Each structure stands twice: as C-alpha cells, then as structure tokens.
Amino acid sequence: MQSKVWQTIEKYHMCPQGAHIVVGVSGGADSMALLHLLNRFAGEQGWCITAVHVHHGLRGEEADRDRNFVQEICREWKIPCKVYYFDVSKEAKARGLGTEEAGRLLRYEAFEQERQGGMIAVAHNKNDQGETVLMRLCRGAGVSGLTGIRPVREFIIRPLLFCTRKEIEEYCQDKGLSYCEDSTNRENNYTRNRIRNQVLPLLEEIYPKATEHIAQTAEIMTEEEEFLQEQARVLFIKALKKSDENEIVLDAECLKSMHRAMGKRVLAMAFDALEGKKDIGSVHYELLVGLLGQESGKSLYLPNHIIAELSYGALILKKVREMSSHFSYPLPLNQEIYVPEAKLFVGTYLCTKKRTQKSQDSCTKVFDYDKIGCALFCRTRQNGDRLAIKNGRKKLKDFLIDEKIPREERDRLPLIATEDDVLWVVNQRVSAAYLPDENTKKFLTVQIRRFIE
User: Fold this and answer.
1) End-to-end Cα, the chain, rounded Å
2) Three-class SS of residue 427?
3) Residue whose C-alpha is closest to residue 447's, from 352, 368, 359
4) Nearest alpha-carbon partner for 374 in 417, 334, 415, 418
5) Closest-CA residue to 305 (of 294, 317, 297, 315)
6) In the predicted model, is pLDDT for residue 452 greater than 60?
C-alpha cells in the first residue's frame, strides 16, 4: 500500500518537495494510516507536517477520547497537533444546514486556517469514492457529478483515494497502528451511512467487486470530463463577447448552434466567471435554453443575484452586487431551494394524498396541482398580479392596501405564483382558485422554512 500511495502522490503531483502539509486526523483507521505514511515520506521529501483534529461537540466522552488519542500519537511521533473545537449543532442551525454538512464545512475551515500556503491532506479512500458516486447517481448527476471525489482539488489532496478500506485496515494491523472507531459510523441516521452499511454490502453480495468497479467508473468519468471541459473552453472563448467581474456577454446565435450538452457547459463556465455557480441547477440551465429562443428584451432572475437578459443577439449574464428588493426563482418539483432575499427555504412536493408537515420554523400550504398547469416561482409582485378570493378576483395591490401591509414591505413580500397569477401571499393569504377539492388527484405541497440566523 505504501507503494500505491506514493505512486498516487507522484502521478497527481500532490506535494512538492519542502511543502507544508496539514493532515486532517480524526483518529480513525484511514486518517491514522495517512498520517503514518506521510510522516514516513516527510524526511526524504522535506515536508513539514501538521496534524489537525476537529472536535465537533457531538459525541460526548467518545469525542474527548478521540481527541486525547490523536494528541498522544502526535506527541509520540513528534508531529505538531492543533485541535479545533466547534458546536456543530449550533453552527448547523445558524447556517441552515444539516449537521453532517456543517461539520464538513467547519473541518475544512479549520484546515484552511492552518494551511499557510501549503496543502491539505484528507483520508478519503476507494470505498468513500464508491459511496459518493452511488449517492450522486441516485440523486441525479451528469458526467461531472459521476467523477466523484477528485484526487486533487485546488490545495486539497487525497493520497489514499485508490486504496480500499480493507487495505488501509490491513496496513494499520501490519504496522501496529492503533485507531479509534466512531460509533456513529454504525448508525443509519445519515444517507452515507445507510449506503455504506446497507446498500453497498447488498450490492457486493451480487457483484463482489461492486465498490471497486464504481470507483473505476469515477476514474473513467474523470477522463471524459477533462476532455469535455477542454472542448467547452474552446466554445466558451468562441461565444464570449465581453467579460468582467460583474458581467459576461455571450453570442446568443453561437450558443444556439452548440449541442445542448456543450451549451450548458459554456453557461456553467460563465457562472464560474461570475462566482455564481453555486445553487445553479439543471432547471436553471433549461430556463436559459428557453430564454435563448425568445425575443430580445426578455430576462430571467437566477440564484446568487444573477440576471440573464436577451438583448439584440446577446445573452447577458449580470451579477447584481447590491441586494435588490425584486426577485424571481423557479420552483422545481420535489426540490427545495434557498431564496436569499427573503431568507427562506422553499420546497415543493407532489403527491397523491393531502399531507402537511408543520413545525415551529416552517409553514405549509397545499394546492391542486392540476389547476396550476404551468411553472411556479417564488417571486415578488409585478404589474397585473391578482389574487382569487371568495367573492372573485382582486388586484394584489388593493389586497395589500386593505391588509394594511406597509408600502416599504409590499415590493419585497415573497409570493408563490405563476408568471401572472398569485397562489400564496406568504404569511398572508392563499388564492381560492387553486385550493384542493373533492376532485383533486394531485396535491402540491409548498413548504416554507425560515433561515435561522
């Protein structure tokens, strides 16, 4: 395994001589093997190694045990060790994230604080790769998503990525390395644990090398992705008319002439250039493709304060640095999106039975999906908006005045609406025109959750 790890480091040019390497060390078998191997290579390569352990404040005495173990091993091996303490549950609520995702972000923030221009080494292995690819496949992913975990991403390196968990545990046994087992890894509360403990073992009963072959698929997808991105870069340069930090202008006819797959990649590169790719999903690319077929002057509001506008043969993607009171976000079915202007999470769920899910920080309404019949948005008001009430239809403007909504709040009030009709004035009134009745066959549940600061 030592030879395999060294070949990986060399193949991907992970660590130049004399580099400073921050090693994420949880105390588990993977991270202990990684720390041991890098420490063995360090003398010859002139590397300076720092171990970083993150205490998540989640597992009580077991977490304290892991911290003490890592500190003791680092003293024994004469490796500097830094310990970071976080209240992950509290941070997860503050950031509107799950505990697993919040913990991951906090770990990398700690690693980055210690990096000081060097590299960050983490202990992902071939089994982690298999789990990741399978999860992404089940959620829906393109070629880029199926590349899985990359061996190198910016300053993050993964020397163990082509080693199996079994190889790592055998290495620890051969070298007499102790390690701690995280008891939560055996619990099935998290999706990854269920994939690891239930799904993959079942797959391996049918295909004994399932995990290894899934990881090999990720390698193949990585090669494919690199080639496709090279081709997309050529097309991006061909279509580009103007570029700065706030605006990308692309030739609309050039975009329309591209294969849809390459056109989406070119658009993704434009979002990257605007630092606005996060939260852009397939539904937004489809809307942009649709925009290209419309007349000049049409526009579309996208996540991360980006406005797309079609203007005289050009597609203009503009980053609005200042927060605008106006927003409009498409609502894809069976997904949840974040609306930063309103600090709300909005989810839409289609089902055949009426169901609501209530909690202190959420509000849910149910509609007849067949009565809607077109795309939904979370947006602010626009000219001509009307709301169906018991006695007929009323201008939204008049309704807001009657309800004594302050003028300064009216323009930023979130609505669940089609392009020209309002279903729900959030926290106020639901349209009578879209309520379920005895003939309803498809129920659309719209759930709104507050972002907890």
Assistant:
1) 46
2) coil
3) 359
4) 418
5) 317
6) no
Contact 98, 92 (CB under 8 A): yes
12: CB partners within 8 A, 6+ apart: 151, 152, 157
Relative to beta strand 422-425, strand 415-417 is antiparallel
Q: Is residue 323 predicted with pLDDT exceeding 60? A: no
pLDDT value for 359: 52
The helix (run of H) or strand (run of E) holding residue 335 is strand 335-339
Closest by CA to 378, choosing from 433, 411, 431, 338, is: 338
**What's the mean per-residue pLDDT of the chain?**
88
Unique residue bearing structure tokens 């982690």: 128
Assess contact for 355 and 445: CB atoms under 8 A. Answer: yes
Q: What is the per-residue pLDDT across 235-254, written as a single tens digit (0 to 9) for each?
A: 999 999 988 888 999 999 99
Q: For residue 139, what are its two tokens?
A: 């959620």
Q: Are strands 314-319 and 247-251 parallel, antiparallel or unpaired?
A: antiparallel
Residue 453, pLDDT score: 39
Nearest to 290 by CA among 430, 419, 450: 419
With a cut of 60, say whether residue 219 has pLDDT above it. Answer: yes
> Is residue 54 within 8 Å of residue 110, measured between CB atoms?
yes
Question: DSSP string of 113-154?
Answer: HHHTTSEEE----HHHHHHHHHHHHHH---TTGGG-S-SEET
pLDDT of 376 strictly over 50: yes
Q: Nearest CA to 282 among 260, 250, 256, 252?
A: 260
> Which residue spans within 234-305 are E strands per DSSP?
240-243, 247-251, 299-302
Q: What is the mean pLDDT of residues 9-20?
A: 94
Asked whether the beta carbons of 445 and 364 are under 8 A apart, the reply is yes
- Token pair 């009657």 is found at 402
Residues 98-129: tens digit of each pLDDT: 888 888 999 999 999 999 899 999 999 999 99
Distance, in Å, from the CA atom of 156 to the CA atom of 145, rounded to the nearest integer, reads 18
| Count of other CB atoms within 10 angstroms of residue 387 | 25
